[in-house]
């Protein structure tokens, strides 16, 4: 996705490791090249991709939602289409299959896309359709999180810490040597709050 973004400014980079010039060509030291398109790792890459994809949807008659900048909506004569995207993951929802196929065709002309079929997973969310409607859960994400932290076989507690731990007042010992795994875990648990049982 990031490789599709157009650059608004001149950006130069050193030649990547392993680059070999044409046979018989000697390159001067410290040679740089000018980028014509976005590259992975470029600070502007994700923004440029978002702008290009958004511009394409706007040109197709979609309107950007005021509630979510990644949501685009089109409603013409009762034919409703919604597109939500996160980086290079795209969801298309519509009340007519024809509109979905038309949009996919239009996007295929602009970008190289891979259709993964009916939506089942999106950003850790499990999506299931039934005659009663659409349900969203994070069971798989939760099990992976428990497995990753070694808590898959744990028993539930009413308090958020081991009750056998004796707390000391004014301890000079750091609570955690490295807080990064703790922060990562808290962030993942906060992501779990977007769905409820």
Your description of this structure?
The protein is α+β, with helices and mostly antiparallel strands. It has two domains: 2-117, no CATH class; 118-159 and 173-197, no CATH class. It has helices at residues 45-59, 97-110, 139-148, 180-192, and strands spanning 12-14, 32-34, 63-64, 71-76, 79-86, 89-94, 121-122, 125-130, 133-137. A hairpin with a 6-residue loop joins strand 3 (63-64) and strand 4.
Count of extended strands: 9
Order of helices and strands: EEHEEEEHEEEHH
Largest sheet: 4 strands, antiparallel
- Low-confidence residue ranges: none
What is the 3D shape?
Answer: flat
**Number of folding domains?**
2
With strands numbered from the N-terminus, the spatial order across the biggest sheet is: 3-4-5-6
Rounded to an integer in angstroms, the radius of gyration calculated over CA atoms is: 24 Å
What fraction strand? 15-25%
Mean pLDDT across the residues is 85
Organism: Noccaea caerulescens (Alpine penny-cress)
Protein name: Retrovirus-related Pol polyprotein from transposon TNT 1-94
Domain Reverse transcriptase Ty1/copia-type: 1-161
InterPro entries: DNA/RNA_pol_sf, RVT_2
